[in-house]
Amino acid sequence: MRPDGTRPEDFAEEARQASDNVCEALRCAGAEPSDIVQVRSWLTARGDIDAYVKVRKGVISHRPANTLAVVPQLIRLSLRWESEVTTVVTHSAAEQYE
User: What is the DSSP letter of 72?
Assistant: First the structure.
């Protein structure tokens, strides 16, 4: 979702926006994409996998544990992608954001 609550029409744009949202949440928590240790993602269309992988590789350059599943639908029917990201931030790394 965009900050204004609207959803991009194109899946690749939705994936980029979701990735931007994750990066902003990480930044607010004193983390960055290199701190990601696990990603779980659910897509609603198998045809979106290539776009998802392309966007993900643009954000996450290392290889954290990863689960990707294609499901019939998400709880919010208009969305096509949901992700859960786990990070590990050392105390000293988090201090730089205080």
Answer: S
